Every structure is written in C-alpha cells, then in structure tokens.
Amino acid sequence: MDITIRASFLPHEDADLSVAFYRDALGFEVRESRGDGITVGPAGQKDTSIVLQPPGAAHGVTDAERRTIAEMMAKGTYAAIEMATADLDAAFARLRAGGAEVVHGPVEQPDGGRACAVRDPAGNLIRIREQP
After folding, report:
1. Minimal CA–CA distance to 81: which of 122, 37, 31, 46?
2. Residue 100: Cβ-neighbour burial (10 angstroms; 0-12, 13-18, 19+)
3. Residue 38, class by beta-carbon neighbours within 10 Å (0-12 exposed, 13-18 middle, 19+ buried)?
4. Which of 56, 40, 60 minimizes the C-alpha distance to 48?
5. Contact at 8 Å (CB) between 14 and 128?
6. DSSP category for residue 70
C-alpha cells in the first residue's frame, strides 16, 4: 500500500494571526481561504497541507464540546503537529524572531535527535525535529 498524508487539521481562533504565523514565521504559503478554513503548506510541497479551521467546525459538534475544545486550546492541550527540518537552529531562530511562544529551544532528544517546540497563536503545539 502507498499512503501519504495530504492534510492535517488544526484549529484557529483568529484567522489573521494564524495566517501571519504560518506564512511569516514558518514561511508557508497560503493556498486557499474559504469560510470553513484556510489551507497553508510548505513551499515546494504541494501535496502536504495544514487546514486551519475554527474549533468545532465539524458538523455534529455540540456547544458543550465546543466549550471543551476552547478550554483545551486555552491550555495548549488540544492539538499538535510535528514537522522536520534540516536546520533546526535556523528554524527556531526564525520562529523566535516571529514572536512564537517558545515551549523549549533546540534540545537533544532521548533517541539522539534534536527538537524544539513552540505554540502557534491558537495554542497548538508545533514540534520541529532536526532531520539531516
């Protein structure tokens, strides 16, 4: 079987702040903007995207569930994504200069690799691993 990841979905509370973060701090391109979400992705990787959408945008989500999602987003425990880069120090410097909330800077991982972690404007955890 040949399966790839086409898109991941992350919530946002403020479309303008989220677009600015993914475009300016991460260097992603904005690919599509519709009422139910904004699609962004790394330049040169047309087959991989992140869809930023309002929390609880899926049909069938109750008001109580939306409140739970909002509480988890406020704590930064609702959503996460892991990315990879060949130059972790440069990526971290760009994120830090872009005002990202730093969880931790580049550190050695138990498996021998290095990673850093930041939060986007909605509180989503973004972990970036160095991948030579």
Report:
1. 122
2. buried
3. buried
4. 40
5. no
6. H
The identity of residue 20, as a single letter, is A
Q: 30-63: per-residue pLDDT in tens?
A: 999 987 789 999 999 999 999 999 887 777 888 8
* Residue 56 phi, psi (nearest 5): 70, 25
Q: Which of 49, 57, 34 is nearest to 83 (CA)?
A: 49
Does residue 6 contact residue 47 with C-beta atoms inside 8 Å? yes
Residue with tokens 């959408």: 53
Of the candidates 124, 37, 22, the one whose C-alpha atom is nearest the C-alpha of residue 81 is 124
Residue with tokens 């079987």: 1
